[in-house]
């Protein structure tokens, strides 16, 4: 899989001495959706701003589709669409004019069919002659995305795209992002919503204190770091304390039953032995329940919160 963005040894120190990015190395694959997860102040927005050319890097290199962001600024900027957190739109401009003007800023002539396609996809076509001031907050956010897509970029950055929007709009956004990936657009988003990253991401990169802590395929991350607990509810007629000597279990008792919590890992080689052992014991299995670590719990483990 080819890399559309390559980041090497990136550092960013602001004038007040704040180290926002600390030796960031990251490859972003063409046509993927990658989520940047991290607490407030982790460096997510600084990373996006630096790749997009809004903020100058202190050191390190960034290549977008093979072009250096410093030497080939115009070429790299044309490849990128950016949806910032803030909604900054001229209140009395019409939606259609805002999108056309944004396209013209990148040096492209008007393309009515392309703009119509974007507005229809974002359910803005019937609002095209409305002024921005007449739109709801959710519709304004759609206009921001339409602006970012107006010049048909290969890469789309979404900085907290669903922050403060209702659930229905959030689900619509997820559908749109998946459609864009199907069209070959590479999507990089920052989000505070763990379920958002879990729903739409191909890969997840966790950042904290300006450092990339890990970057993994979503499925691999959950399988590798997610621990499963299998709980056996058994009768109280036998002492099971000896199990903890041979297996990774915790045991809790009450007056009616005992819970044996088996902490299962993907590479566990003892589970079959455990099952054989517990089946030989003179106790009745009343229930079996499984609980698996969520992506949110994995995230909290990684960042140490």
From TrEMBL:
CDD domains from the UniProt entry: ABC_DR_subfamily_A (cd03230)
Source taxon at top rank: Bacteria
GO molecular function, one term: ATP binding
UniProt keywords, alphabetically: ATP-binding, Nucleotide-binding, Transport
Name the record gives this protein: ABC transporter ATP-binding protein
Domain ABC transporter: residue ranges: 5-234
Gene3D superfamilies for this protein: P-loop containing nucleotide triphosphate hydrolases
